[in-house]
Amino acid sequence: MKLLWSPRSPFARKVAIVLHELNLQDETTKVLTNLALPITPPKSILEVNPLGKIPALILENGKVLMDSRVICEYLNSSHNGSLYGTDYEANTTHLIWQSLADGLNETLLLWRTEINRGDTKSTAICANFETKVGATMAHLNTNIQQFRQEKFGIGHIATLCVLGQLDFRWSSSEWRRSFPELAAWAQDVSDRPSVKENPSAVEDSSTAFPIKAPQIQFFKE
Predict the structure, then answer these.
(1) Ordered structural domains, the chain, with CATH
(2) Model-level pTM?
(3) Is 65 within 8 Å of 59 (Cβ atoms)?
């Protein structure tokens, strides 16, 4: 299998962690693929995924899976995994947390894009995003004890990936100080092999992409 991937993408990182949890990392070739909204995807990417997005997983039979949710569910079901829980209640919990984490990632991307419009950005839209991000983080922080009781799975993985994106793109947010229970949980699972072997990007070192990471503190005491 081939995975179109980048450590800059929380969704691609989610797939990489799932591959590791299912012991498929050695059967998969990672193809570093850097994309950005202002840059038209190259033909080589569009031929694999016409949406011009990563992650995309090319199976051995040539079929292409796109979207991290589709890829992760396929990998788990086709390799007898248990990353989505072993009963209905656990499955529902994992799916809810994955939806929250993925939605938070999407909101952060939209917010970052709006901020980088500079003088033309909308303060009302930014305030909207700030409210949604704060509410979601507070919800995750409040309910993390319940989630600690679940076996490690897709909900945990998705949540770790959005927290990694906060460290990468919003390094001045100080989210750990505002959400200590969530920070403690993240620290507890940080030594898991699948997490250690698939870290989030630690700094935005690329100068090729015009979108810059905003350095603002959006969580307040």
Answers:
(1) 2-79 (3.40.30.10), 88-197 (1.20.1050.10)
(2) 0.91
(3) yes
